[in-house]
Amino acid sequence: MKKKFTYIKNLIFISPLNFAFICMLLVIEIGILSFSVLSLVPLVDFIIDPTLINKSQITDVVINFLRYINVDPSFLIFASFFVISQIFKALITIFINYSILKFKYDVLRKINHDTLNLILNSNWNFFSEIDYGYLTNTFVKEISNIGHTVGQLARMFASFTQFIIYLSIPLFINLNLT
To answer: What pLDDT sits at residue 84?
Structure first.
C-alpha cells in the first residue's frame, strides 16, 4: 500500500504546477457548485410560494442581496441566477477536464523523454540482449497505460471532491431533513 502512495506521489511531482493548478480549480469549483446548488433554493421557494412568506434562510439572503442592488425578486431573476450558475458550473467542469488532460500529457511527455534518454544512453550490450518487441511494447503501450492511469487518478480526485460538495450542501441546508 505504501508503494502505491509513493508511486502516486512521484507521478504528481513530475508536474507539480499542473497538479497545483488542478487543485486550485477544484477549490473554485467548490464555490461554483455550492452556488449552483444553492441557487436552486430561491427558485423552488418562489415556485412553491410566489408571495415568499414561508421562505428559507437562503432565499432570505438572496432577497436581501437583491434589495441591496435595487432589484425586485421575481421568477425571472431567480431562474437567471440558476441558469448563470449552471453555465459557470459547465465552464469550470470543461476547464478542469482540459487541465486534467494537460496534466496527463505533461506527465506522459516527461516519462517518454526520460525513458528515451535512458534508452539512447544505454550501451550496445543492452540493444544486443533485449527483444525489440518487448522494448517497443514497453515504450509505447506501458507508458500510455501510465498516462491513462494518471488521467483517471486526477478524474477520481475531481469526482471525489464533487461528491463531498454534493454531500455537504444538503447537510448545511438542513441537517435533520438530510
So the answer is: 92
